[in-house]
Design a protein that fits this description.
Elements (H helix, E strand, L loop, with lengths): L1 H28 L11 H71 L3 H17 L10 H16 L3 E6 L10 H20 L6 E9 L2 E8 L6 H4 L18 H11 L3 E7 L4 E8 L12 E5 L1
Parallel strand pairs: 1-2, 4-6
Antiparallel strand pairs: 2-3, 3-5, 4-5
Helix pairs in contact: 1-2, 2-3, 2-4, 2-5, 4-5, 5-7
Length: about 300
Amino acid sequence: MEARRRAISLVLALLGLSTVLTGIALLALVPRAGQPARRPAWICVWLTAAGFVLMSCAMLVLWSYARGSARESVDSLKSMQVENTEEVVTNLRVQRHGFVNHLQVIYGLLQLGKIQKAQDYILSVSSDVLMGGAWPGLARYPELGALLGAKFMLAQAKGIDASCEVSANLDLLPVPPFKLATILGNLLDNAIDALTEYDGAKSIRLLVREAGGFVDFEVWDSGGPIPREVLTHLFQKGFTTKDGKGSGLGLFTSRHLAEELGGTIKVRTSTRGGNSFLVRLPRAGNAATKRGTGACSSTM
């Protein structure tokens, strides 16, 4: 944001100086009343040339800023993809280590002849694995299932109850896995961060459901209401409420990707508690696809 303000200030200064020099050059060409016309051509030429040079510099500054901003957006997207991939890899390593321990426990129980104990232990481990990311409704997107496993393990480590409910068929959803994982990963990170210091009940739900020719992905958290002054800036690039700890690119990137895919993203908050981020993405062949913008609303 600071770089943007500096670039705009520099452009305005260059354009203003260019306008002043061009105006002086034009006034020099106008004869004064009661005096013979004086046309210092070389002065006018130099002033006009200087004005055009300054204007060209302003255009160059704008072009450089736009190019740098685009590069920064691409770099931030790649960085988030790398972070999500690292979380998935870490989750798989943790699960692998845990499975070795589980196998040793089961083997020991069988060696001791504790068949019922071994069966009960296997059932408990199977339940943990299901909570770790094996959702049948996400079979088309195993990458998303792996990411959810990592995010939900992080949430549970912070005392946050996390769950996922899938009631939509994702077979006709033409969305690259890494983009969908980036969108939802950012929203889940936002919900986890919001609940980390929250004093009330802590829970997160991901709901995936049908919506006509669209599929809705809703990330709901039980945290306190989002202030109105924050709602209006939530999706702005660089905006963060984490006191310098955040990049301010998470929600901005999620909105950018959702719109790039022809979808929308909205946030709703209530003074009674609970916040909901709703991502709506079109199915393949949906002629009603429209590009939207992030929208915010609050209820009393």
